Amino acid sequence: LAKAKGRASYCFYEPSQADSAYAELVLESQLVQAIERNEFVLYFQPQVSAATGELVGAEALLRWRHPQRGLLGPDVFIDVAERHRLMLDLGAWVMRAAAEQARVWHQSGIAPVRIAVNLSRMEFRLDGFAELVAEVLRDLGVPGAWLELELTERMLMDEIASAPATLAALRAQGLTVSVDDFGTGYTSLAHLTRLPLDKLKIDQSFVAPLPNDQGAAAIVRAVIQMAAGLGLQVSAEGVRTAAQRDLLLEWGCDGLQGEMIGEPMSAQAFEHWLAQR
Ligand code: C2E
Ligand code: MG
Ligand code: MG
Ligand code: MG
Question: Which ligand gives the minimal distance to the CA of 235?
Fold first, then answer.
């Protein structure tokens, strides 16, 4: 096709494919060094009780202080890390950093909250993942109750054979297990009732159209009721307005997270935010 259209069109798209392959190669090699050079940092987004507004936890969100490009969010590098199997090292770093921060905050009494960690598919697939977590906690002297793990529906369904035992082993250590981005995946409802879970986090795409979108409202209310029926906690992500907060509270949502409460912040900014409340 390129040939038929002549040289100009050949040059038009060929370099862009090469560019993106090259860009990924560069990113990959920078990612390897980034761990060694300590360029990663965790940001923390507050999670509050819908009923009381009290701080109940913080979600750890990974950031990369890229030497040239500045602060990068996970969307820029998580997929590349997964494709090149760097995600296990990165995930282990996240787990440790989150547990360390939990310990610092508990010891200083600044923010004695549970820190939620996002897992990658690679980590959850790992044989002996629950033991690995136990090892980190033991190493750092951190009780499991100070951490929460967030998994997606996709991760649970992909590992449906081993997931019940892994989740049970994690919960036996006191960890809270949550399903992230709930409603966007394909969880079989039959499986949902059988998996040992603690919490559903309603995806922000259902929260964002509230309060005016009837379809979104129906879904959010249904998930809250289902969670109650299954004895699970439920929280909402991406809460941006007081109207959204009020509706979620009225419908019985337990927890809230989003810009309206607080954006993801560095640990220091989080402490400052907490002191100002
Ligand atoms: P997530 O776990 O669903 O995290 C919520 C995302 O929504 C975060 O984006 C957060 O900054 C953003 N957010 C929070 N409140 C609002 C709001 O009110 N409005 C809007 N529009 N967005 C809001 P972020 O930090 O860019 O993270 C994106 C995703 O990357 C996360 O989605 C999570 O799946 C993944 N991720 C983040 N940190 C890690 C990590 O340490 N390990 C792994 N495996 N994945 C991570
Ligand atoms: Mg999450
Ligand atoms: Mg989410
Ligand atoms: Mg997500």
Answer: 3
